[in-house]
Amino acid sequence: MSACILWHGAVNGDGYGTIAPSRRVKLLAHVEAFKAVHGVRPPVVMHTCDNPRCVNPDHLVAGTQALNMQDMARKGRAARLRGVTNGRAKLTEKSVIRIRMCRGALSCNKLAALYDVDRSTITDIWKRKSWKHLGSGPSLLARQQSPLFSAG
Ligand SMILES: [Zn+2]
After folding, report:
1. How close is the Cα of 38 to the center of ligand 1, in Å?
2. How many angstroms does the Cα of residue 69 sit away from the middle of ligand 1?
3. Global pTM?
């Protein structure tokens, strides 16, 4: 692996290099370095070298959606998001229905692994903390065309 390129400008409280193009705007140096190379600014840019001041593009990777979701959940923002309309949801309405119907048949861990989401995502669906707008029961069964559930 190539050597770290350390940011010599300002750093924030977490040790990340920051760029302040104006009084109101503060950008993370490593995120901007990633964008300069890849042309996109992902919601999360992580260091493979664990060096928050490093801006070597070779050491930067876009965070996964799952990590980002965990991050959002940690910050309490996930609760405000609802369904697929927010554009960030990984699950479709169909998969949520399946997850509800698999309750009891498959463990929380298994479903979380299956859909590549956090365990809390599954339990929230089960407890109807999320995807409340989706119904359940016979009406859902009737709507489901999936052969997985048509056998009864
Ligand atoms: Zn580095």
Report:
1. 17
2. 25
3. 0.44
As a whole number of angstroms, the distance between CA 22 and CA 14 comes to 20
Ligand 1: centre distance to CA 30 (Å): 10
Cα–Cα distance for residue pair 95/99, rounded to 1 Å: 6
* C-beta neighbour count of 47 within 10 angstroms: 17
pLDDT tens-place string over residues 61-86:
887 666 656 666 666 655 554 444 44
Q: Contact at 8 Å (CB) between 28 and 16? A: yes
Of the candidates 66, 127, 68, 134, the residue with the CA atom closest to the CA atom of residue 96: 134
Q: What is the pLDDT of residues 5-15, one digit of tens each?
A: 999 999 999 89
Q: How far is the CA of 3 from the centre of ligand 1 (A)?
A: 6
